Every structure is written in C-alpha cells, then in structure tokens.
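Researcher: For the annotation table, I need structure tokens for Cas10/Cmr2 second palm domain-containing protein. Please keep the output clean. Sequence:
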Amino acid sequence: MTQALIAFDTDHIKRYVFNTNKLKEIRGASSILDRLNRKETVHIAQKYGARTIYANGGSALFLVDARSAEALGKEVQRCYQRETRGGASITYAIQPLPDYDPRIDIMNTAYLGDTAIADLLELLRFRQRMAKESLHMDTMQQEDTLHTIAYPSHPFFSTCDSCGMEYAQNVLAEPDDEDDEGRYCQICTGKHQEDQDVKKQLENTQKRHHSARDFSEYQPLWERILEHLQPGDLQGRTLQRPKKFDSFQDFSKNKEYIGLIYADGNQIGERLKTLRTLQEYQDFAQTIDDALFAALGHAISVHLPLNRNQLPFDVLLVGGDDVIILVPAEKAMQIAFTLAKTFSTKLVEHYPDNEALQCTLSVSVVLAPIKYPFSLQRELSDATLKAAKKAGALYRIAPSLVNFVVVTGNISMDEKSRNQELQRTQKQWISSKEAIITKFQATLRPYTLDELDWLLKRLEAGNKLRLGRTKLHQLREAILRLNNTITVLETLATMRNWQEHERTFIMTMVQKINELYKLPRKQVEISFPWFSIRRSNKDKHSIYQTPLLDFIELYDFVAF
C-alpha cells in the first residue's frame, strides 16, 4: 500500500490577523483561520479518503493515498485563497511512506520495515521548512505561487480605510458603530463579515457539550472558548464581546490601561522529536490544544467574572500552543500566572511518567494605555515573549516563565535598550590581568511561577497597606542609580520618612528573599535594596538584584 504523509502550515498567521488595528477585524481574521484549519481542511481531506492525525493551531497532518496527496494539497491552498480573498495562504509538504503490509496498524507502529516513523516525520518537517522558505518547492506548488510585480494605479482608486494596503471594493456601514463606516478591501470585508457571523452565534448562546476530538464535527472557535468557562454562567445569555479597545474602560478600575497577554509553548519542536508513532503524535497535538483551551477558560473564570452579558475579555488568537488575549490591566498578571500554571498541570496529569512531554508556557504581559497604538503594544509583546523564551533556553527543560513590561512615558521598543536601563556592570581591576565584575540588575524578570506567586502575594499585602505613590517613586529612582553605594544611601534616606510598618514590609521583601529560593540565609548577601546569591566562596563576581522595582511597577496595575 503506497501512502504518504502530508503536512500543512498556515503562512504568516500574525500578518493576516493583525494586519489592522481594529478589534472586530482581528477577531474575524482569527475566526476565519480557525474555521479553515479545523473544519474546511479536514473536510477536504476526508473527500480524498485521508486520515486525520491532527488539525489545529494553523497546521495539520494527514495520512493519505500517495497518488492523491498533491491534489489534496492544491485544493486546500485554493480554499485558503478563496475564503480569505487572497489575504492568507498555506504551505504543504509531502513525505511518501515505504510500502507496508495493510494489516499493520499504521498509527501504532514505530517502524515501517527498517525506516522509523520518527525519521519520516523529521524528514517531513524538513521538507516543510524548505517549502516555507521557498528553497525547495515542488514544481506544481511553484506554478500556483503568485508573484505581484506592481499594483495598478489610478487617481480614482481608493485604498482600504482599514489596512491601507489594498484597494477598496466595498462600502460598509455598521448601524451600531459609526466608526466602522468606510471603504474596505475584500480582505477586510471578509473579516468584518466573519465577526458579524460570530456575533449572531453569541446572541442566543446555549451551551452545547460535545467532544472536540471528533474531527467530523467542527466546534466554532468562540463556542469552544465559552465551553471552558464556568458551567452554567452563560446558559441562555445574550453575550457581547468588546466592540473596540475603548470598551475595556468599562471593565477596569484603572480605566486607562489594558493588558495584552501572549503565551507560547516551550520547546514544542524538541518534544515532537521524542514521539515514535503517529498515534503518539495525534495524542500529543490534541492534548496540547485541549490543555490550552482548558487553561484559558479556567484563568478567565477565576479572575474575570462575567459582567452582566458583557464578556470582559477578548481572545485575539488561540490554537495549538499559542494564545493572545486582551484583558483589563488589573487582572493581567494573575491571569498570566493561572494560565501558565493550569496548562503545565494539565500536561503533568496527562503525562505523569514522561517528563519530556510535560510542556510549559512562556508568557509575556504588556500593560499599556488604552490609547497606545495596538501595533506597538503587540510588537512589545513579541519582544517580551522572546526574552522569556531566551531565558528558558538556558534550562535543560524550560520552565514556565512570565515576563512583563509596563508602558509608561517614552519606552524603547528594543528589548536590549530597555535592559540597559535596568542593568549595569562594574569592573574593579585588582591586577593588570584580573578584574572583579559586579553586575546590578534592577529586576528579576522573567519570573518563574514560584517567583511570580511570591510577588503577587507581596503585591496583595502591599495594597492593603496603601503605600504612597510618591514614596514608591522615590525608591524606584534610588534603585535605578544601579550602584551599591549611592543606591543604598538614597534608599535608606528615602525610607526614613516612611512609617514603621511600611518600612518593615519593604525591607522584609529583600531580607527574607532566601525563603523564595529555598536557600540558607548565609548564602544570600543582603545590601538593601540589593541581594546577591553566593554560588561558591571562590566566586569573585557578584550579581546584585532586587524585586522592589518590579513590585513598584506593578503596584498600581494589580488589583485583588
């Protein structure tokens, strides 16, 4: 029996979803891609008699007759071109399988003859990377690749009022939102229409429970999101999502800020390499997807109770091991913590004896003014997540890490520039060839879940004390001197004006930092507001850190 594996991967998902800064179009684009991935692609594959291994997160894998593989790939590409009106595309790669006895259970075998299934999957991933980089496309794929030389131009042509890239072809008028009236291109029109369709589905939501594992039955994106919220809370309600970014002012005590949370799985590619059969591959992909939806639903249910019929959050992108959500700023850190913790717990429960498959999340949180350009907020989110993943790469198995940025005043978009403001290195030469290096880091970011839990508890206790903003700002300025002598003197001088219980609370955060790291007290050197962990007596280099700057930055943005 001659069969082949065919893998699909959606191209430039973020570019299509976040091509505009309008909330409705972002949601619509995300819903379109989810429907194409989970429903349309599977439906087309079934026409060719293909067996679904998985289809989620913008990618898919099928087992199909080798003679039909190319036709399947082309039809899925045409479907994406048609449904997104040219806004999104998908790449496929085909890996033929060696001939095998049809009596073999192809899903549970680790070898076909002398060839390992794991090696075939690795080769398939390589083919897909090459195809996406346009270095090794099949000839038939190349024939359909569109190369735009130049757009036509005419004085009476009008560009789209939303994306500003394509020419407008439709005039849309929203009866409930005058801001959406204007001329739109086909791509943005399709996103608008999709969002309206989802809105109608939510107007009379009745909870339905059916398994998402049944590939023949597609569950719309928002129906699946709501299914994981508290049971019964949404029964029979007429639900409304935020119309625009300004709508988040109605959900928050701090009306000027919103939180953008971006979570992504750690080392997923490395974990895939440990899988030996197609059944393991299918189970892992479905487990990751289910765990992410469950963690998202749990985090929202715990921290964002439903405000009448208004959903106090918005899901911009979710699937596979990625999720991007918009929430009130005051609950963003708690949601990020619960999301990452619940996800890792679900994986540990499913793979209790396999540490290699107990996946974790890296999470970035960007707290920014509501009027702050969303494209810049998302750019900050990408950079913040990348920093968390870079830190996680230093571990053998990356833990869940949460990184955050608070946008105040003029903030640099470059991660390296922001780090330079929070770090400084001193060299003290003790000979012509040897120097003692002292490094100051005014932050503990990114945080492990244990560290973030500790920080959130300190913030909760600090909120009850009602620490003054002026006092905290003075302490922040002293810390940013990034110096052992000046910082210590200015910090102590600042705290002389504090009340005794306030001073004790702040100093205890640093003096008992060894309890957070479960270290003996003598192994931690305290030079308030700094602390330094001694790794060995022979180590002449010191790294001084403090949790106080992170505490101060989040103090006004975390509510309990």
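Researcher: And a one-line annotation?
Model: Residues 278-303 form the longest helix (26 residues).
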